[in-house]
Amino acid sequence: MRTFWWGRAWELLKGRPLGVFAGFLLLVLPPCLAGADSFRFSGDETEIILAEGRERTVLRGNARVESAAVILLADEIELYGPDFRYAETRKNVRVLDGERGFSITADTVWFDRETENFRASGQVVVDDEINDLIVKGGFLETRRGGDLLILQMSVRVLREDLTARSQFLRYRRQEEVLELSGFPRVFWKGDEYRATRIIMNLATDEIELQGQVEGSVFLEETAPREEVE
User: What is the pLDDT of residues 119-130, one digit of tens each?
Assistant: First the structure.
């Protein structure tokens, strides 16, 4: 792993705007010195671009960015923006959000450190450990700091007693509510449901079907009652 020495850093930073120097300090100082919103980074190869207006850091090979709540892992991670607010990860991407209890794997992931929201594309898989649920799709956007997940394109939902597919999904994690649209089809506890829009509350075991509705309900056979003489 390549180490970026302070002597070399000082030579590069001399004469640069104060904001660039402050941003660099925020990246490399330990959390106890850099402040509550600081983060650490590492990689086999590090490229730091300090041209005014194009400041960015590119990590290649076993790239890692770690903040208090989120860990980003990828073959390549690019940090840019004011105080290196944004991170763009590419190839073999994995995101670990220990604070909210979910992880993301994808081809590419964009992360906003300030809002803690993500955008992911490619073969996106979200493992929600808190709700014991896996969702897949071609594109993911998170809002409200990861409490609302929006997935598009070939969406799949997997759980022990649930399999669902659609083209669009809004998943409200705290409420455990799934809103499926775009030819949704749900297999839940042995029954099958189709509709224009399907809303499922996993916490209360409720399902709402809207628009054109189809369904198949499995009824367990019960033994005939014996006549009492």
Answer: 999 999 999 999
Q: How far apart are CA 123 and CA 135, in angstroms?
A: 11
How far is CA 116 from each of CA 127, 166, 205, rounded to the nearest angstrom?
Answer: 17, 26, 30
Q: Cα–Cα distance between 106 and 124 in angstroms, integer? A: 4
Close Cβ partners of 183 (under 8 Å, ≥ 6 residues apart): 166, 167
- Residue matched to tokens 């006549």: 227
Question: Tokens 């033994």, residue?
Answer: 223
Dump pLDDT digits (tens) for 185-205: 999 888 999 999 999 999 999
Class at the top of the CATH hierarchy for domain 6-159 = mainly beta
Q: Look at residues 69, 66, 68 and name the one whose alpha carbon lies nearest to residue 77.
A: 66
Using alpha carbons, list the distances in angstroms from residue 32 to 17, 25, 26, 79, 109: 24, 12, 11, 21, 28
If you ran DSSP here, which 8-state letter would residue 203 be given?
T
Residue 39 has pLDDT above 50, yes or no: yes
